[in-house]
Structures are given as C-alpha cells and as structure tokens.
Amino acid sequence: MSVKKLKHLEIQTEHEADKLLIEKVIASGQEHVFRWWNALTENEQKKLLSQLKLIDFALIQDLIDKYVKENKHTSQKTATLKPPGIIPIPQNDLQKTRAIEAKGIGEKAIKSGSVAVVTVAGGLGTRLGADRPKGTLPISPIMGKSIFQLHAEKIQAIMKRCETTLPWYIMTSINNDEMTREFFEENRYFGLNTDNVSFFTQGELPVIDLQGKLLMDSKSSIVTNPNGHGGTLFALKEKGILSNMKERGIKHVFYHQVDNVLIKIADPIYLGYHISEGAKMSPKAVQKINPEEKVGIIGIRDGHLDTIEYSELSDEDKYARNPDGTLRFGMGSPAIYLLDVDFVERINESNVKLPYHKAVKKAPYIDENGGKVKPIKNNAIKFEMFIFDALELAKKSIIMEIIREDEFSPIKNDKGESSPDTARQNMINLFGRWLKGAGIEIPTDEDGNVKGVIEISPLYALDAEELKSKVNKDLVFNGELNLQ
Ligand code: UTP
C-alpha cells in the first residue's frame, strides 16, 4: 500500500495509477479536494478519483493562467471585420427559382437517407430555472406538447413526406441524460422507431472559484459544467456517433438547439444550397432587431467566416450602417448549422482545439466546513466551447438568411423576452399567418398577435403549403383552432 502524506492527513491508495493521479492533483494546487478523504467510504473515494481521472489538469492550469491570473475575458477576437455574402430571403423571380432548385436538391438528399438531425440539449437551462430538461417543457399552445414532442413530430412528418428515415441524435449532459432518456421512454419515443433515436452525453469541465480552485459539490465530488455546445463536435466522435452516421451513409448533419420551438428541421432549401456549393459548415442568419440586441453576429474576420459575440463587437461596428440604412453587421446567429460528417471527422483527426470561453456565474458548492452554500453573488468561473468557433475551419460555407418570425423563437428565460410565453405566442402567430395564406380570416391585435389560440401539429401540416392543401377553406376561426 502506498501512502501519500498530505498536510494533516494520509492518503492511502492501493494502486500506483491512483497515487500518480493524487500527486498530479496536488501538484496542480488542488489538494483541497482531498480535504475529507479520510472520512470517505471506499466507494466515495473511488467516486472522487474516477471523476478526477477525467480531468485534463494541464488544460485546467492553462485556463487558470489565462482567465484567472491574467484575467482575460474570452478568446478576444479583435481584427478587421467584413460583412459576409448572404443568400437572401427570396424577393425576385431569380431568387425564387434558385430556392426551388435548392429545395429539390435538399429533398433528394433527405430521401437518399444522407441527412441526420443533431439536437443539442445538454445545457443547464439556468436562466429558465426549471428542474427538468428544457426539452421536456410543455409548450404547444393547446395540447401542451413538450418541445421534444414537437421536434419528434417534425421529424416524423419529414420521414413520411420523403419516405425515408431521418436519424435523430440528441446530445445531453450528465446532469440531464437520465431524465431525458426516461422522458422518451415514458412517451414511447413519440411514435418514432427507437433505432432512429440516439442519445449521447457531452464532455464536462470542472468549475473553479474566482481564485482558480476547483469547487466541491459534495465531500466526494467536484462541481462540473457541460463543456459548451462546441463540445458536440468532439462528443460526436468520442461517443461513436460519427461511426454510426458513416455506417448509415449519413453525410450531412442538421444541427439545432433544443430550445428553438420554431425550428425548421432539415430545411431542404438550406440543405440544397449547402450541398450544391460543396459547403462543409453553413450557418443560418437572422436580421438583428436593433444594434443593441445581444446576439453574436456573423462576419468575415481576417478572411475567415466567424461569429463575433455581442460583447466583442466594437461600438463602431455595432452601429455601422449600409447606405440603405440597414446594419452593416446586422446578421445575427440563430445557432442553426449544417455540418458535413467528413468535416467533423477531420476536426477530430487533425486534433484541432476550439478555444474556451469564460463565464463568471453563480454555482452552489460546499465550503471548507462541508456546508452547502447557495451563493448570492457570482462565485464561479465556467468554461465552454462554442460551436461557431469551428466556422473558420470550414473550407466552404453558405449563409442563408431566414425570417425570424418563421424560424427562430428560443426559450431562454422564465418570463419576458425569449420565454415560454413568447414562444407560444410566436407559434400561434406563425400558424395564423399560414391560415391567412390559405385564405382564412384570422383577427390580430395592434401588435400583430393573433386574437385567440391556434395549434397545428407538424403531423397535420409541416408548412404553409401543406396547410393550404389540406385545410377547409370555409373554416371560420372562432378564437380557438386545433389541427392535429
Ligand atoms: P444556452 O447556453 O443558450 O442555454 O445554450 P442553456 O444552457 O439551456 O441555458 P442557460 O445558459 O444555462 O440559461 C443553447 C443551447 O445549447 C445547448 C443547450 O441545451 C441549448 O439547446 N447546450 C449549451 C448544450 O447542449 N451544451 C452546453 O454545454 C451548453
């Protein structure tokens, strides 16, 4: 038995590997994680070691040096910025013809089975404050269907329309993986074939205090945080999803975030443009509401496509206008991407690292007396990778502008902006526009909101055209309409 003396306590380990690990932790200045070692059961000791084993201490040290000691903010992208070329929302005949051609190409790809959907749902949903995974939130205006069910029904509808399978991969994190899987089990996968729905967990990183010390969650575990949506690119490889995709002949991945209730899953027009241009990673883009809107913007930074965070955009760029009055950097990111499987594979094989971004937040922990602390001030630093940092690695991308009201309504907060209330209203308004397009009168108030409540299941109609072809033109809207 080897014994490691640590101040007043002796750490006993039977295995050489454990001893080396403990020495590494101590050499990294994190010996406080063994504070309760002698009082832990053997199982608890094992649990702590197995958690520590997964940590890249060299990386953590780098992050501490950069973000705590030098107090840098993020990767700090400063450079010359140019607006990117965008595929606009079709206005003229030529643009409309191109969109129709692109749709044909996209549908062909879906029909051939070369497209899959990746939904990222590993985030903690801290701003929303729910104690369940965000995707389980009941959200549809009448039936109260969950966000996951709405996504599932869209996938089901596309499969039916294209007579194909559209495999669905859902990224979770250790905090919500079990609950997410259980939710799908309880709801019988919303009618989807279980062979076509997979879950995979993303990586985690330790959370440190403002001095760079690992925070403890219990006497035998440290506080960790999912490694950001950028972690998707690496989890796809590590969890065997890329291999599974290749076996199935999948070439293109439609990536979206779980919390956008208006998402147009596997939009064929977008796919068509991406494929015909031989693009490798392509973002959708949405006009910013105003210069101050807190979204990342899509721009060309030093010759590479990139997303620049709101906080990193200079005032000069933020307020710059084109001659026609529109914002020069007005293309915000709705976090919707197409990624080619070979591109994700190459990122993994070439060992490219994405930068880590720092966020100072509140994180509960246990103090040196073992008491649980729920901080009222920011006490912790979390590190995350962002998916858009991979954009500059793509040899080719297309950027397609979308109409916000039709495709982008994320749920971030409990109340107010980007909340369940706005998401429901935006769904109702979208269905109202579809119905108006089909010739049905739908009254709206002075803000343009539908007076009443409407729900249209994706299984009834996936878009305005399908609705128009199905709905009874003599229908009179009496304030509530539920089409399932
Ligand atoms: P956000 O950071 O906007 O939302 O992530 P969140 O994590 O759900 O909520 P907050 O920030 O704690 O309030 C955007 C999307 O990326 C996913 C989230 O699940 C959400 O769909 N995400 C985020 C991950 O899958 N993993 C992460 O590590 C972070």
UniProtKB/TrEMBL annotation:
Keywords, alphabetical: Nucleotidyltransferase, Transferase
The keyword Repeat is annotated on this UniProt entry: no
Family matches, as InterPro entries: Nucleotide-diphossugar_trans, UDP-sugar_pyrophosphorylase, UDPGP_fam
GO molecular function: uridylyltransferase activity
PANTHER family: LD24639P (PTHR11952:SF2), UDP- GLUCOSE PYROPHOSPHORYLASE (PTHR11952)
Family as reported in the entry's similarity comment: Belongs to the UDPGP type 1 family.
Descriptive protein name: UDP-N-acetylglucosamine pyrophosphorylase
Species whose genome carries this gene: Candidatus Scalindua rubra
